[in-house]
Amino acid sequence: MARDIIIAPSILSADFARLGEEVRAIDAAGCDWIHVDVMDGHFVPNITIGPDVVKALRPHSKKIFDVHLMIAPCDPFIEAFAAAGSDIITVHAEAGPHLDRSLQLIRNLGKKAGVSITPSTPESAIDYVLDKVDLVLVMTVNPGFGGQAFIPSQLHKIRAIKNAIGARPIHIEVDGGINAETAPLVVEAGANVIVAGSAVFKGGACQENIAAIKAAAMRARIAAA
Description:
Elements lengths: L5 E4 L9 H10 L4 E7 L11 H7 L6 E7 L4 H9 L4 E5 L6 H10 L3 E6 L17 E5 L14 H12 L5 E5 L7 H7 L3 E4 L1 H4 L4 H19 L1
Helix pairs in contact: 2-3, 6-8
């Protein structure tokens, strides 16, 4: 059975001076999850936010907080992000030598566990942890900055991951260059969670932008059925 299409706007593209207000705005605009990109200036060439900001944002929405840790090492910070109110915590396969341990730690803290891979990492890197994840995040740009162009070669990777997952209840999430034009491509390949930053916040028309992305994704789902 196909999983529901989920739109998870990335607050990386929000106005950082008004983050609480921006989270409330995308909540009211009909988002399903709220995607929080955490960057450390080490694993990726940018610095964004830490657990204290997640904690400060938590009262602004009851939606799922989908927290993507683009940090290395990640294990020392997982407990803090869990305590801050994260619902899903995703770590990178490339961020450390003990991916299995990191995922176990997330689950032991009562949170959903996700694993992410960058464009250059093959899907085989996560074969042996699929029994410990609730979500696989395929980066369709090189992580670090918003507003980048979608990398089409990742569609093959999404299809391969979909086949590897089989009937297991694991979300396939995509992040990078997703808009109303590219969302149908990733949905057709097997993704069901759409992260979009610039495409959601552009023009301040969050509700219309979310609706357009979801409608395009749903058309692709129906056409592929």
